[in-house]
Amino acid sequence: METEDSINPTNCAICSSLKDKEAAFQKYGWEENDTFLPAAYFQLQEVIDLKPYSSRKLKLLQCPACRTYYLYHSDYEYLVNGSEDEEYLERLTSEEATQYL
Ligand SMILES: [Zn+2]
């Protein structure tokens, strides 16, 4: 019988290159210090856009290979000397993902 625990992200080519929690920061005018989410993030598929009209994004994403869910959220801060973008990606259990579905 298959259980939740049988989902092992390290067996998946996409998920194995993502940590349980990822974060990236970009600051306008300070590009040399910018960090970005791993390339594997771009392979995830969007399931629901939970805040389609907000500049602060909240999205439920899913790995197309192993069906693992991820929560993506971003924050945006406007500063006089340039704006700051923050992005977060968090791996969810299917139970955690259910509350967004
Ligand atoms: Zn995966």
Write the layout of secondary structure elements.
Blueprint: E1 21-27, E2 45-49, E3 58-62, E4 69-77, E5 84-92, H1 94-98
Antiparallel strand pairs: 1-5, 2-3, 3-4, 4-5
Bound molecules: zinc ion.
Tell me what the structure shows.
By secondary structure, the protein is mainly beta. The chain has one domain. Helices cover 5% and strands 35% of the residues. The longest helix has 5 residues. The radius of gyration is 15 Å and the shape is globular. The protein binds zinc ion (ZN).
Q: Which features characterize this protein?
A:
101 residues; five-stranded antiparallel β-sheet; 5 strands; globular; binds zinc ion; mainly beta; 1 helix; single chain
Number of helical elements: 1
Strand portion: 25-35%
Mean pLDDT: 89
Quaternary organization: single chain
Task: Tell me about the largest β-sheet.
Answer: 5 strands, antiparallel
When the domains are counted, the total is 1
Order of helices and strands: EEEEEH
Kindly report the spatial arrangement of strands forming the biggest sheet.
1-5-4-3-2
Radius of gyration, rounded? 15 Å
Give the helix proportion (percent range). under 10%
Span between termini = 24 Å
Give the overall shape, derived from the CA principal axes: globular
Category from helices, strands and their pairing: mainly beta
List the ions, cofactors and other small molecules found in this model: zinc ion
Spans where pLDDT lies below 50 across 5 or more residues: none
